[in-house]
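TICKET: design request
STATUS: open
ATTACHED STRUCTURE:
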């Protein structure tokens, strides 16, 4: 009998179910986009909430579809687990009923975050995270202040992947990687921080127990089996947040290893066996999916989004030509950018379309082309956009190296990671090899491997990664290119400090 792992994946934009065999091969999948509800009650800040019952129905129907598509028996599924958008939360009352459910977009928390600014050094030291309205700490404080009727009903605070596992097996359990994204968790000691909770006036009795990574937390209930098509009694293994899962799915589970994701946002994610917290809050420190280890993460807000913005507004001819050729417009854009020399003919791009997180935690900063002249063509601007994003990702790496986190092996994933030109830029700027893997299902594959560990197929997460994750394409740094990029990057680093005051003034401009 073949063995498979079922993975539920609750992303920001859609739900997905994935069926993997024990070699890491994706056998079957299905997805469906979510519909969110806007809530502006009691605040001028927008919240994107979701209907928990609708999400449950979508995920469970996708599971049934995946099993049917694969043509397998539910007996062959040896474990099930989940991954999700990291900061999303679901709160349950004492009857197990959802009373709050939202992804990371709940801007009301910003109002409460302002009250925490004086405690930021203390909060960073415990949680590894700078104060921000996106995290659970600020959300709970907002509800305590502005909607105490809901706050008083909270029995259990769960992250979304925890909640999915709860729906499957009835166990209220979290795990360190996703718990540490709540800003309620002591990342050094691997537990909910009663010290922090008491200091800000929050209750300490509303958090689930913490399981180890790859640990079975229950079995599929009879009710869940009827709704999902899974077999009653199938082991449910604790999952992981999306980036921690992606680390497992790309083999980033040892010191010296890291990955760069270029999706809408950009992420640089490095593994470390020694905890390191940036006192300036430029990067975030979380528990990772290897027991007793951590990962440090830097974020560029508008990475692939910068290129998409450029495509949608300036690359109409490329989109038309690509449609007639049956290729992706980004393929043609890559070719055009590759014809432009390093430095984009002395044109720089600041990729701050929606503010920035690393290394400048600044909501007011905005994007800019610097050095634009009549000599520049569209392809120069295109190259500048790709280089500007790469410089921003290099900023993340520089902070990590300042924290004595070694990076000598880099994986590339996300849509931008499919671009040979972009991977070469990163290799030249990072001064290390940049690789891809044959399997592109990073987060979902990572959780499938955790499920396999929980089912006893592998004895540990590193063992599972070594058996399954194989490098595919490798971009090696070119010394001549690296020397040229260093000159441009040195100038790029001067732009934000020189222009910060102008961006602040622009943000408050009333015309």
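STATUS: resolved
RESOLUTION: sequence designed for all positions
ATTACHED SEQUENCE:
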């Amino acid at each position: 009998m073949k063995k498979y792992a079922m993975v539920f994946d609750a992303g920001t934009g859609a739900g997905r179910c994935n069926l993997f065999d024990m070699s890491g091969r994706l056998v079957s999948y299905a997805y469906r986009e979510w519909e969110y509800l806007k809530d502006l009650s009691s605040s001028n800040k927008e919240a994107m909430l979701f209907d928990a019952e609708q999400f449950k129905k979508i995920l469970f129907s996708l599971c049934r579809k995946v099993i049917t598509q694969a043509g397998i028996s539910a007996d062959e599924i040896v474990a099930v687990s989940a991954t999700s958008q990291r900061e999303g939360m679901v709160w349950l009352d004492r009857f197990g009923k959802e009373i709050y459910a939202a992804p990371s977009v709940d801007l009301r928390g910003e109002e409460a975050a302002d009250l925490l600014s004086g405690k930021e050094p203390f909060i960073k030291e415990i949680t590894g995270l700078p104060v921000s309205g996106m995290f659970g700490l600020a959300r709970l404080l907002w509800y305590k202040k502005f909607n105490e009727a809901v706050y008083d009903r909270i029995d259990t605070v769960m992250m979304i992947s925890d909640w999915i596992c709860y729906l499957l097996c009835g166990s209220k359990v979290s795990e360190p990687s996703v718990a540490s994204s709540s800003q309620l968790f002591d990342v050094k000691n691997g537990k909910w921080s009663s010290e922090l909770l008491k200091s800000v006036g929050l209750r300490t009795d509303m958090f689930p127990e913490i399981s180890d990574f790859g640990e079975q937390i229950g079995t599929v209930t009879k009710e869940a089996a009827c709704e999902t098509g899974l077999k009653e009694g199938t082991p449910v293994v604790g999952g992981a947040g999306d980036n921690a899962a992606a680390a497992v799915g790309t083999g980033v589970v040892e010191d010296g290893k890291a990955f760069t994701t270029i999706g809408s946002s950009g992420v640089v994610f490095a593994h470390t066996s020694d905890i390191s917290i940036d006192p300036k809050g430029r990067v975030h420190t979380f528990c990772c999916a290897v027991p007793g280890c951590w990962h440090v993460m830097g974020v560029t807000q508008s990475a692939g989004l910068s290129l998409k913005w450029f495509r949608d507004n300036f690359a109409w001819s490329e989109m038309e030509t690509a449609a007639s050729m049956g290729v992706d417009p980004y393929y043609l854009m890559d070719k055009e950018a590759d014809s432009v020399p390093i430095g984009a003919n002395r044109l720089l791009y600041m990729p701050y379309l929606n503010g920035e997180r690393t290394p400048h935690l600044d909501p007011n900063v905005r994007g800019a082309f610097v050095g634009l002249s009549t000599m520049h063509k569209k392809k120069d601007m295109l190259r500048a956009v790709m280089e500007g994003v790469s410089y921003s990702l290099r900023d993340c790496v520089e902070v990590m190296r300042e924290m004595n986190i070694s990076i000598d092996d880099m994986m590339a994933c996300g849509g931008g990671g499919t671009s040979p030109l972009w991977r070469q830029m990163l290799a030249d700027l990072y001064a290390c090899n940049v690789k891809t893997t044959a399997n592109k299902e990073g987060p979902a594959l990572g959780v499938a491997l955790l499920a396999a560990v929980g089912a006893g197929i592998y004895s540990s997460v590193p063992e599972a990664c070594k058996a399954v994750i194989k490098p595919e394409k490798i971009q090696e740094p070119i010394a001549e290119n690296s020397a040229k990029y260093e000159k441009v990057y040195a100038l790029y680093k001067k732009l934000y400090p020189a222009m910060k005051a102008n961006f602040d003034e622009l943000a408050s401009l009333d015309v």
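CLOSING REMARK: The chain has 18 helices and 25 strands. The first strand starts at residue 4 and ends at 10.
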